[in-house]
Design a protein that fits this description.
The complex is a heterodimer of chains A (about 120) and B (about 110). With about 120 residues, chain A is mainly β. Chain A is built from no helices and eleven strands. The chains are: A mainly beta (about 120), B mainly beta (about 110).
């Protein structure tokens, strides 16, 4: 059973960088056929796809966030990360990491972590 | 960008009812559509992938249909555990979610 767990600061100041890590257990980020994703949900709102990465480092980003987003993968430690800069209050959201399994859609999700952008 | 429009935004129903949620894509997404269920404070849970394939472990009262630009999620007989918010997601060209349908108890 694949499990994902987000970690990182719950509070980030405006104009700074939001950095989150997703630790994967029960499976390998180096497995072919899977893309490792970040998705967010603004308070009381819907879901927004941020982007994903393949174990080779190949990335795809939401065009609306592309200029501020970077996703990286650490195969040695079986984890992947999200950087978003610079942040504003509009980036306050629950951030989820997840596994995109191609035809099988996004089949495993972390529990999510709330990040608040505030001074 | 592909836009996904769900209807209705809110649906009131009773246990035992048959309910249908619709999702429309702004362009052809073939069958690259998934449905998720989300409960308060929890991550979304995959129900249906590739428009009509039932995820392992999901009750058979859930079904999906459609292709191209029009898709539906049907729950054949609502159970108390089904009251939640449902999202569609296209994964033909990047990923886009619908705005969600909140299924409430009547």
């Amino acid at each position: 059973q694949v499990q994902l767990q987000e970690s990182g600061p719950g509070l980030v100041k405006p104009s700074q960088t939001l950095s989150l890590t997703c630790n994967v257990s029960g499976g390998s980020v180096s497995s072919g056929g899977y893309y490792w994703s970040w998705i967010r949900q603004h308070p009381e709102k819907g879901l927004e796809w941020i982007g994903y990465i393949f174990y080779t480092g190949n990335t795809h980003y939401n065009p609306s966030l592309k200029s501020r987003v970077s996703i990286s993968v650490d195969t040695s430690n079986n984890r992947f990360s999200l950087d978003l800069r610079p942040v504003t209050a509009a980036d306050t959201a629950v951030y989820y990491c997840a596994r995109f399994a191609g035809v099988h859609a996004t089949d495993y999700w972390g529990p999510g972590t709330l990040v608040t952008v505030s001074s | 960008d592909i836009q996904m429009t769900q209807s209705p935004s809110t649906l009131s129903a009773s246990v035992g009812d048959r309910v249908t949620i619709t999702c429309r894509a702004s362009q052809n997404i073939y069958s690259w559509l998934a449905w998720y269920q989300q409960k308060p404070g929890k991550a979304p849970k995959l129900l249906i992938y590739k428009a009509s394939s039932l995820e392992s472990g999901v009750p058979s009262r859930f079904s999906g249909s459609g292709s191209g630009t029009e898709f539906t999620l049907t729950i054949s007989s609502l159970q108390p555990d089904d009251f939640a918010t449902y999202y569609c997601q296209q994964y033909n060209n990047y990923h886009t979610f619908g705005q969600g349908t909140k299924l409430e108890i009547k």
